[in-house]
Amino acid sequence: MVAGSFDYSSVGPYLSYAKKSFRTAGRIKLDADGLPMVRYGEEFQYNPVTIAQFGLAKDAQGDISGLKKAADKLIDLQRSDGAFPYYFQFRPYMMTANYAPGWVSGMAQGQALSVLSRGWKKTGDNRYLKAGNAALSFLQVKHPDGPMTTLADLDPALSNYIFFEEYITDPHTYTLNGYMFTLIGLYDWSTITGSKTANRLFKDGIKTLEKILPLYDLGNFSSYDLYYITQPKYLVQVPPHVAARYHKVHLELLSALYSVTHVQLFHEVDSRWRKYVNQAP
């Protein structure tokens, strides 16, 4: 694999989502309106990130109707404070107890911004603008009530660096893919709507990514998060969490972020991590 070279655009196809499909057998089924529901336990539920990714895929495929369906569903799911909650229990791998229904995620806020910005741009429907502004507002709610936090759990000296948590945990786990998806959402919202707040958060978030990206490099693969660093010392220590499918996602997101920031570190890490794939047995 060679380093990614595509130019990301907020008004173009979202990443490689033109090729993305949503299977209706097994874990995902489509509801009466054609929107995906995800199986958790014995029930199918609406997952805000899955809805957002469905809309972004439809938009990338030129299906504006599908984009609108997803944007409308996100509005239906959105709370009055701007959050897109998950109305089912869930337990990330690093937790010992389930999240109660109503838990929130920075990734959901960020991916919703990517959908709502495109929906507003292509339809002029100001409901999407209002919902996106509310989503941006909630994204800035600080831990533990919201997804915004700092790097203080890595080092108190890094408390001036912001981070948006995919999973709100204590200590923070700093999940990489969810954070980069959120940065893309901020970029989309700032580029399409002209939001100065989103632009500032994007730039500050990029500084954070520059600071911590080397910590995800394991020398032969990328780590899903930094829990291997922040995990409490009194617990049985777990190794870095790695997964091939997330390594691929990391590569695509790094390539996209490099194309809009020209931060050389992103290109260098993207190139090195692609070589890890080539060297895999």
TrEMBL record:
Any GO BP: heparan sulfate proteoglycan biosynthetic process
Domain D-glucuronyl C5-epimerase C-terminal positions: 80-275
Molecular function (Gene Ontology), one example: heparosan-N-sulfate-glucuronate 5-epimerase activity
Domain of life of the organism encoding this protein: Bacteria
Pfam family for this entry, one: C5-epim_C
Protein name: D-glucuronyl C5-epimerase C-terminal domain-containing protein
Species: Manganibacter manganicus
